[in-house]
Each structure stands twice: as C-alpha cells, then as structure tokens.
Amino acid sequence: MGLDFSVIPPFYGTLLLGVLWTIAITAASALLSFFGGILLAVIALYAPAIIRLPVRFIAWLFMGTPLLLQLFLIYFGLVQIGIDLPAFVAGVIGLGFHFAVYNSELIQTAMLAVDKGQMEAARTLGLSRRQALVKVVVPQAVRDVLPPIGNNMIALLKDSALVSVIGVSELTLSAQRAIGQTYRAFEFYAAAAVLYYIINLGMEAVIRWFENRNRLYR
Amino acid sequence: MDIELILKVYPYFLKAAVITVELSVLTIVLGLICGALGAASRLSRFAILRFIGAAYVSFFRGTPALIQLFLLYFGGPQIGIQLDAFQAGVIGLGVNIGAYMTETMRGAIVAVDRGQTEAARTLGLSKAQAFRKVTLPQALRLMIRPLGVNINAQIKGTALVSAISVVELTYTAQRYIGSTYKPFEMFFLAGVLYLIIITAVGKGVSFLDRKVRIQ
Amino acid sequence: MTETKSFVEIRHAQKSYGTLEVLKDISLNVERGQIVAIIGPSGSGKSTLLRAINDLDPLTGGEVWLDGVQVNKNLPHNQYEKHINQMRQDIGMVFQHFNLFPHLSVRDNVTMAPKLLKKISDKEADKLAEEQLDHVGMLERIDYYPAQLSGGQKQRVAIARALAMKPKLMLFDEATSALDPELVEEVNLVMKKLAQEHMTMIIVTHEMDFAASVCDRVLFMDKGVVVEEGPPEQVFKNPTQERTRNFLRKHLEGAK
C-alpha cells in the first residue's frame, strides 16, 4: 500500500473541526494553567503550612509523573467519586493543572526575585499584604517569566494531543477517525502533523507579539 | 486506599517499570546521539547541513510526539518501515527527544565565551583543536543540567508508547484502572514507581553536575 | 493612656534583634510643620528609627504617636493590619532606592494606591496624577515607565507617589544617597518646596548642608542613642558632645 494523499480532501471538514477543538482545548488549558500557576505560586510562598504542604506534595507528584497517567486519573478518578465530567472538561483540568504546576515553579522563583523594596513601598502607601501581592509583586513576577511561560504554552499545545486517549475529539482523534474509515494512517497523521505545525507557528507568533508588547517597562 | 489490591497487582507494575526503564535508557541514548549529530549540523560550516539540522529540530519540536509516534508505527508500513511497538517507541521517542537535546547542546556550545576560542587560536591551535580542547569540555559542563531536564521529561515521555500498546507503566496502570475501577490506587502505584525512577536519575545528574563543577 | 501633646511623638523607642540592641530608649517630639533631620554614622540606628515610625521595622518597646493616634497600637493581628494600613496612608515614605513600581507607568505609580484605597474615580485619579507630578516637575513624563527615567526623576516621581496619598507626615530615608551627584539638587529642590509648604518631615540624610538649610532641628544618633539634639546652627557649629564633633569632622574630611 503506497501513499495516496487524495484520500484527505473528503475529510477536510473533520480535520478542520479537530483543529478548532485543539485550539479550544489549548486556549482553555493555557488560561487555567496561567492563573492556576499564579495561585499555586502564592500558596507555595505565603499560605499557612496546613494548606501549603499538601499542595506542594500534589505539585511534586504531578511534576514527577507522566501527563498521560494524570489524564487517566482525572478522567476515571472523578467518575469514581461520582463526578462524571465531559472528556473535554477533564482534558482541560488535566492539561491545565499539569502546566499550572510547571508555571508555578517559574512564577515562584520570579516572585522571590522581586526586590523587597517593592513590597515595602506598597505597604508604605497603605496597601495590605494581599493588595501588595496582587498589584505589585505578582504582576512583576509574571512579566519577568513570560518567555518561559510562553515555552510552556507551546509544550501544552503539543501535549494536547494526549487528550485524544480520553476521547476528546481534537485533531489527533479526528485523524484517527479518518484513518478508521480509510485505513490510511500515514496520510492522515502526516496531515495532522502539518496542521499542528501550522498552529504551532501561529501560537509562537502570538506569544512573541505579546512579549514585545510587555517589554516597555524594562 | 485498597492496600490488598495494591499488594496483589504490584508485581505486574514492577515488571512494567522495568520496561519503562529500558525504554528510558534506549530513548535517551538514541536522543543523545541524535542531539550530538543535530547540534553538529546546526553549527556546521555547510549551509546544507545547517538547513537539515534546523529542519529536524523544527519538525520534531513543532509537532506532538504522539503524532510522530503514530506516523512511524501506523504509517511506517505504508512506506516500507515495519517495526514492532517497542522498536517504534524507542526510535520515535528517541529521535523526538534528540531534537530537544540538539537545542540544549547547541545552546551550551554557543554559550561558551568566544574569547576562549580566540585565546586558543592565538596559542596556535587549529579551529578543530580549539573546539575539542577548549570549547567542548566547557560546553559539556554547561549542558549537564539542561540535559538532565530533557532526560527527566523523556522518562515521563515514555508513557506515550502506551498508546501503541507497549506494556510499560502507564499502559499497565490504565489497564488496571479499567479492570479494577480503582484509579487512585493504580495512579499511586505507577506514580511511586515513576517518582523512584525520576528521583534516582535526578540524583545521578546532580551528582555528575557537582563533580564536573569542582574540576 | 497618656495624652499626646506633639504632632509626632516617639516615646522610649527600643528595638533589638536578639541580643543586639539597635535602638535604646529614644524619645522624640515633632510639631506640626516642623522638619527634623536625623544624622549619624551608618549602623547608628537612624534608618531603623525612621522605619519604626510607619512600622516597617516594628519596635520591640515604646510607642509611636501621630496626631493623637498611636501607630503601633497593641491589637489582635487582623485588627492591627487594618489599623496600620490606615495609619500608613497618612505617613508618606521615600526610599533610598526609589522603589518605583517598574511594571506601572509614572501615572499609575502615582494613582495606584489612591484608586485602590481611596476609591477615587479614573478622572479624579488623572487629575491627581497631573497635580502631583506637576508639583515635582515631572508632568511631561507622566506616560513614561520608571526604566526610562534618571535616578533624580525617579525619586521625584516617588515623592509625588507618596504625596498623592495626602499624608500628614513625610519620611525620607536617605532620599539622595543613591543618586549621582549632579542629580541630587533636583530632589533637594523638591524637598525644599515641601518645606516651604509646611509639610511635616523627618529626614534621614548624609547631607549636612541640606540639613542645615531646611531643618528646624537636627538629631545626631550613634549606636542606638540620640547623642545630641538641637537647632542646626548649634549642632553643626557648636556641638557639645565629643562624638558629634568627631563625626562632623570625619564627614567634612570625607566630603573633600
């Protein structure tokens, strides 16, 4: 069986839908991982031990185990405790939390690197500790680590392919569906690869634009 | 937590962990080879090699590893590449991580101060000698830690071959989650084994890192 | 509680880190509109004293009062946080290293706290920013970011930021020490302007000339105690204490 790329056009619609779902799940997970990362960083640095230690432990667990395994845990584990989530939501939670842990490591380091005088100046103006964190420390820390967070988001896009195993109809699963009907694995996986590559390029461009926009204050 | 169940199934997980270790070792070795070749081509004098190196990095870092694996394993036979799942896993993931390692190694070599090469050249060393004797030893030190990050990612990355039915840790965990409906226990069991492997390798990397730093 | 008479009162301030005592029973009264300079060698405790006034470095003993209210009141933690945040709104502070917020424009540096704490509208905030920046001569840089300013300009913005909270008292912690010599004067001019407007100020400084020209009173501190206190003419020209004379002599030599 040689290669025959003419099998692809009838499935343009399927693949396009897959692309849209891939973008949707990437965007939703990226948002969750961004804000989750900030929250985890603040918890890791400022929460009382009773909250901090369990959260740190779970974060450590999630950094040391494969994302795929975590997706199974979340998808099947939540069902077991009576929460039957749509695959898409389970996928967003899994991807989002996994990358939130990585983002939080970056943000924590950056928060510790923010000059102590910043907190002092904010407190001197009458801001509470929480207000100073939200208005002064966190924004600076986050801006300082935008480039590595951008890299994490690119990694997230590629790892979004994994949610196909829990049945999210994103690009990888769409390709598999087409293959199920045509038995043309090479053509459709190659097509999926090209599409991922294009999304990747687009995402890199967006991230670079965003970084440039935030460069002024340095 | 169902301890009884854990005690009953853990031997299967141990066996699977051995497969995970084998996969990790083989993919990392292949990755290091690909990385070295990739870095050499990206820094080559010849434009064609630089282009090949850049294309290699760009494709493998620009698309999901899972897709690459499927392309090789399911699509391979159409272009005359017949591999069993384990072989496909090693080659697919090894070549993939090699692209990341290419960038790590290239970055380390480029990071060595230019003045080092200049100093060596003024002593009369050839370009190749200066690279071998001065730049490379310093670059090797610089790359241990970031390569450790690549390796750590790759150990977790071996989980992908569960999708082509290689019976490693994640596949085993998934299987038992399906048959026992005890996701937390199975996650715990597989998680502990992954953490042991990763912690051991991490210790090895930082030991190596400390050792070369003292020299 | 005893009644206060002065605008700012520090009573028996004491501070130690473990066994190291950095402030030893210091008392100080400052009247409304007065300007007091604190001078002394590094490690004398002068910055610690200043930072105790707004509780950045809490005292281990003694009291600080501002306008009839005790700053370092003994309250349960939660209530104390509320109380001190309220008090700090009335106490402006200017730091040696400016501590401007680098992620905010000059305008937002000035308006962030008033908007957040006094709930003023965007329009009022803009007006406030323009007023305060005009006051320190930085109006034309209102949409710049701190990284685009010189040290002197940064410090003037930092002063505007503090003034925007309409404080009753201003604290200056070596406001010109980190500046290149040619940038010191522009900041001194702003401080002189505040003096003419009768702002109550406590100034920790290394600049004796400046202290002599604007201050009503000078405190010389060494090793955690006030060695000498009086009008600038007396402290600078006719110091009564040996330690003060030594310090001033060394300082003059250093300046030459």
UniProtKB/TrEMBL annotation, chain A:
Cellular compartments annotated: Cell inner membrane; Cell membrane
A Pfam family of this chain: BPD_transp_1
Domain named ABC transmembrane type-1: residues: 19-207
UniProt keyword annotation of Nucleus present: no
PROSITE patterns: ABC_TM1 (PS50928)
Main location, first listed in the record: membrane
Ranges annotated as spanning the membrane: 20-45, 57-79, 85-102, 186-210
Keyword Transport: yes
Membrane topology of the entry: Multi-pass membrane protein
Gene3D superfamilies on file: MetI-like
Keywords attached to this entry: Amino-acid transport, Cell membrane, Membrane, Transmembrane, Transmembrane helix, Transport
NCBIfam families documented for this protein: HEQRo_perm_3TM
Family in the record: Belongs to the binding-protein-dependent transport system permease family. HisMQ subfamily.
Protein name: Amino acid ABC transporter permease
TrEMBL record, chain B:
Chain ranges passing through the membrane: 12-39, 51-74, 186-208
The keyword Transmembrane appears for this protein: yes
Family matches, as InterPro entries: AA_ABC_transptr_permease_3TM, ArtM/GltK/GlnP/TcyL/YhdX-like, MetI-like, MetI-like_sf
Entry keywords, A to Z: Amino-acid transport, Cell membrane, Membrane, Transmembrane, Transmembrane helix, Transport
Family per record: Belongs to the binding-protein-dependent transport system permease family. HisMQ subfamily.
PANTHER family: L-CYSTINE TRANSPORT SYSTEM PERMEASE PROTEIN TCYL, MEMBRANE COMPONENT OF AMINO ACID ABC TRANSPORTER
Protein's name according to its UniProt entry: Nickel transporter
Originating species: Thioclava sediminum
